Amino acid sequence: MATLSLAENFVSYFTGIIHYELADAANIATDYMGGLALLTVQAHMGSLTPPICNVAGLKASLPSHGAPQFDERDPKEAIQMSSFFNGLLLAVCIGGAVTLTSNVYIQDCYGWDWGFGISTGALV
């Protein structure tokens, strides 16, 4: 959930603080796979903020690990598979909304370094 929350905030951070173009910032947010600890240090130490430049996180993919557990030919299991994916999507959406809201609050009130730091800690 921490990664989802960060992915939503990266575009704002990269356009507002790092001064990337919007398209580049969106690309960075899409391709993000790691480096959270480094971003936490950079956000905490203002001297590490790079000069304005135009120069990439997370590809949202949730593989369907649950589908092989169900036999689609069995009507009872087909209903259970549908319920499984409905519950999974609901949990991801609620979790994403809660973490995004709390992370934005922390970043607004305490700074980007706290937002990145808490998310880094959650991932570790």
Strand-residue fraction? Answer: under 5%
How big is the Rg? 18 Å
Q: Estimate the global geometry from the Cα principal axes.
A: elongated
Helical residues, percent: 55-70%
* SSE arrangement, N to C: HHHHH
Q: Which residue ranges are poorly predicted, with pLDDT under 50 across at least 5 consecutive positions?
A: 55-60
- In DSSP terms, counting alpha (H) and pi (I) runs of 4 or more, how many helices? 5
Main β-sheet: number of strands, strand sense, barrel status?
A: none
Oligomer status: single chain
Average pLDDT metric = 77
Number of domains: 1
GO molecular function, one term: transmembrane transporter activity
Pfam families: PTR2
Membrane topology: Multi-pass membrane protein
InterPro entries: MFS_trans_sf, POT_fam
Provide structural commentary.
66% of the residues lie in helices and 0% in strands. The longest helix is centred in the C-terminal third of the chain and has 36 residues. It has five helices and no strands. The protein has one domain. It is elongated, with a radius of gyration of 18 Å. Belongs to the major facilitator superfamily. Proton-dependent oligopeptide transporter (POT/PTR) (TC 2.A.17) family. Pfam families: PTR2.
